[in-house]
Amino acid sequence: MHITRGFTGRPRVDDPGLPPGQYDAGDDWPVLSAEVTPDLAPADWTFRVDGLVDAPRTWDWEEAHRLPPSAYEGAVHCVTSWSKFGVRFSGVSLDAFLDVVRPHGSATHAVAYSHTGYTTNLPLADLTGGRAWIAWEYDGRPLAPEHGGPARLLVPHLYFWKSAKWIAGLRLLDHEEPGFWEQNGYHGRGNPWEEQRYSGD
Amino acid sequence: MTDTFVPPTRFAVPGRIAVGEQAAAVWQTATLTEIRRETPRAATFRLAVPGWPGHLPGQHLMVRLTAEDGYAAQRHYSIASAPDDSGHIELTLDHVEGGEVSGWFHTVARVGDRVEVRGPVSGFFAWPGDRPALLIGAGSGVVPLMSMVRHHRARNLTVPLRLVVSARSPEELIYAREFGAETTPVFTRAAPEGVPVGRMAAAHVAPLLAERPPGGWEAYVCGSNSFAEHASRLLVTAGQPVDRVRIERFG
């Protein structure tokens, strides 16, 4: 660590909700996707779970909305160092989808993929136990296309690149398969509290 | 399930290059060797980085500033300079209102100061100079694109390269003196005599897509999110394949 001459930084509030190296973006919600925002209507949206499961299944918009609703209220953290507090997403807990497809005991990881083709990998344990959602509303309104609408994955305890926008499916695997940013040097898991930004952190 | 997973649609243009784990993980001390004013709001900061592993045009790095009480702030910045053997890299930073890191660079930093950097990171937006490149930027979004233009010149590359860059006025056009025949500037608020004022439009983009080189263009878009949305739509509407548009949005 090298002290930077004359750098004092913003006035600090000791916020226990702010992971190391992050700042509070306040009302801003930066958009950081590498691809063209797709034109994806709810009627064309589908979500599939397959791979190491007993009963692979695809849900359409109406079918997914018949699952029990679930909401998340809290913070999200982007690897580019902004965090956003007090966000309110609603949708369905991923557990509700997994209960239907019944993952095999051998399933340890998942690749989440988007309708654009974006991919990201996650340990299955990060997607279960009420810690991950398929979200379609933000602050009580339909999720905006540039933020992943009509529906995105939400895994708020990991860096936000894991929360794939325009989510199309999950494939359960018995090994880790790096996704889009992970192949570009980013960390396999991405825990903000351990600053797992890049591969090797 | 040992086959490599294939995504269902075409995007996911794979990363252009692999990023070394070592380069991405290690913080290095960089020394500020020069500050050049570009526009009233933007300046270029030249850094000597003795252990710099090299980069490709379009890649970025992370900068970390640390206060005396241990508080650290880090930001991603695009690299402005072309790869060379000088042991230096350049960043061009806008002075963002209330910017914690850019504010330090613009108001405190002087030659001889040291900061920490790590990188280069992300191979997605990189352009090694191998394919025709259509570059579209606005404001300081021109920074990674300029690294590509400079690379093209330094290596005397013959692969087609075009740059369309939007700025509010000629005074705010970063690198104005460096642009050549490859560049079309677009001015949104004030323009030189005889040059129309207005937003980047289909008329700027369509002729470039019409002169489609063999193999087609790789498009690189960089700017604010609203600009990136607008420009990427113009490209796709004009016929650029959606899976050959790479976007770097300022967050």
From TrEMBL, chain A:
CDD domains assigned to the protein according to its UniProt record, in alphabetical order: arch_bact_SO_family_Moco
Region of interest (Disordered), ranges: 1-27
Oxidoreductase molybdopterin-binding domain location: 37-181
Superkingdom of origin organism: Bacteria
Signal peptide range: none
Pfam family, any one: Oxidored_molyb
UniProt protein name: Sulfite oxidase-like oxidoreductase
UniProtKB/TrEMBL annotation, chain B:
Cofactor(s) recorded in Swiss-Prot or TrEMBL: FAD
Stored InterPro entries: Cbr1-like_FAD-bd_dom, FAD-bd_FR_type, FNR_nucleotide-bd, MRET, Riboflavin_synthase-like_b-brl
Start and end residues of each FAD-binding FR-type domain: 25-127
Highest taxon above the source species: Bacteria
Protein name: Ferredoxin reductase
Keywords: 2Fe-2S, Iron, Iron-sulfur, Metal-binding
TM segment ranges: none
Pfam families in UniProt: FAD_binding_6
Organism, as annotated: Streptomyces koelreuteriae
